[in-house]
Design brief:
Layout (H helix, E strand, L loop, with lengths): L1 H30 L2 E5 L6 E5 L5 H9 L9 E7 L4 E3 L1 H8 L9 H7 L6 E5 L3 E7 L10 E6 L2 E7 L5 E6 L38 H7 L17 H7 L1 E2 L2 H12 L2
Parallel strand pairs: 3-6
Antiparallel strand pairs: 1-2, 3-4, 5-6, 7-8, 7-10, 8-9
């Protein structure tokens, strides 16, 4: 009789423990959409997703993508009033870099805030950035002022109007003898570099926005009678046929 009195409490404890364990396991499986399946190796049971092949799970995986993957591609676009062009300078640079790896959408937006770009679309394969402007696009084979990283730069468009090259604006164009050096868009700067950071221009009304979004001009439509742009029109539109003109314009515009 004494043995039976001892066995009953033990059996009761074991039964309670089994029920609790079974409840916990069932709750865990339901919470994570798991099920038990038999397999051919020890322990002969394994957990699998209930809906591993469903479109719902695949859609959820795409929707919840929150960080840039190692092989994600980047596209940068400028959306003007009349058309959309590519910024191949940024596209080529960041597709060959790991600087954006593991960044979230909000971190990407902060990273490119000074250049006016924000994330338009983000997936596991591609992130598309767009800079929206309320001006008309720059013509083909023109130079204009913009922002590269945190510095004022001179950009160049190709025959399609896409942005294909840049040179950071260096305000120091004088040699040791005080003679002004000839500006060359493709050459490397010499001497002491004096770049103009975008943060240094915050106090200038409207200038920063013009650099980031593109200089707005009053004459949205140039008369069809104008066979070629005059120098006044170039300055008003902020786009130039030569890099030298763009450089001189930048010097006058950014002069403190």
């Amino acid at each position: 009789m004494k043995k039976l009195k001892f066995i009953y409490p033990v059996i009761t404890i074991i039964l309670i423990a089994f029920i609790c364990a079974n409840y916990s396991l069932t709750h865990y499986m339901n919470k994570n959409d798991l099920k038990l399946e038999t397999c051919g190796t020890l322990p002969y049971l394994k957990f699998t997703q209930k809906y591993a092949n469903s479109n719902l799970i695949q859609t959820s995986a795409i929707t919840k993508l929150s960080r840039v993957a190692e092989d994600t591609k980047f596209v940068f676009k400028n959306k003007y009033k009349d058309k959309e062009v590519k910024n191949m300078v940024l596209t080529n640079y960041f597709n060959g870099s790991k600087l954006l790896n593991n960044k979230t959408k909000s971190e990407l937006n902060v990273y490119f805030e000074n250049q006016g770009y924000s994330v338009s679309n983000m997936s596991s394969d591609e992130v598309v950035f767009v800079n929206v402007s309320d001006r008309y696009s720059y013509k083909a084979n023109r130079f204009f002022l913009g922002v590269y990283e945190d510095n004022v730069t001179i950009y160049k468009t190709d025959k399609n109007g896409d942005i294909t090259s840049q040179k950071i604006f260096n305000s120091n164009v004088y040699d040791k003898n005080g003679k002004q050096q000839k500006y060359d868009f493709n050459s490397k700067d010499k001497g002491e570099l004096q770049f103009i950071k975008i943060d240094d221009l915050k106090e200038k009304d409207g200038l920063v926005d013009d650099l980031i979004r593109g200089r707005k001009y009053n004459k949205d439509v140039i008369s069809s009678n104008d066979v070629q742009d005059t120098e006044a029109i170039e300055y008003e539109k902020g786009e130039f046929k030569t890099a030298e003109k763009a450089f001189d314009y930048a010097r006058g515009l950014l002069k403190s």
